[in-house]
Amino acid sequence: ALADLWYRANFGKLAFGIAMRRLKGLPRSTFGTTLAHMGLGVTVLGIVIVTTFETETVVEMKQGMTVDAGGYSLTFDGIRHHVGANFTEDRGHFTARKGGAEVADVWSSKRLYTARRMPTTEAGIMTFGLSQLYVSLGDPMSDGGIVVRIWWKPFILCIWGGTIFMMVGGMVSLSDRRLRVGAPKRKARAAKDAVLGAA
To answer: Cα dist. 112→41, 87, 108 in Å?
Structure first.
C-alpha cells in the first residue's frame, strides 16, 4: 500500500522536493485507498496469527493454584459471591504475573438472572499490547475445585485495528470532491444561473 504512494510520487526518480509536492498533490481517494488496503493487510495478519498461535488451556483449579498460559502465570485467588440488581453470581479473581511481577488482574463470573433463571458466563479479559488473555469459569467440582478455561489470543486486536483503518480509509475517500455525487452538476447549474442573472 505504501509502495503505491511511493511509485505514484516518483520517489527515487525525481528530486525529493518534487516528489513530496507530487505526493501532496495526489487526490484524497488515493490516500483513502492506501489506508483501506493497509487495514485489510493488518486484519488478515491478525487472523493468521490468532489462528496459528492461539492456545486453549482447560484445567481444574483451586484457590492458590497457578497455571501458565501465553507466557504469563495465572493464579486463581478464589471465588466471591455477589448479588446484583437482577442477578446473582460467583466471581473468580485471577492475577497474571510475568517474571514474578504482577502485571494484571481480572474477574470472571458465572451469573444467574433470577427472573428467567438463565445462567450466563462472563469471561474475564486481560489485554497485553495487541494480545489478549481470556479467562472463563466452568463447572464446580466435587472436591472444591472449579474448571477454568484460558485462551491466549496473540495479536487479536489487529483484527479490530485493521477494520478501523479500512473505515477511516473509506471516509477519506468519500471526502474527495471528485467522488461527491452531483457536485459537478451543482457547479454547472450555479454557473448557468449566474449567466442568466447577468443577462
So the answer is: 41, 5, 13
User: How far apart, in whole angstroms, are the C-alpha atoms of residue 186 and residue 11?
Assistant: 37
Q: Residues for the chain: how many in total?
A: 199
- Distance (Å, whole) CA 98 – CA 103: 7
Rounded CA separation 55/46 (Å): 15
Torsion of CA 15, 18, 24, 27, to 10 degrees: -100
Residue pLDDT, tens place only, 83-133: 888 889 999 999 999 998 999 999 999 988 888 888 889 999 999 999 999
Residues 6+ apart with CB under 8 A from 180: 174
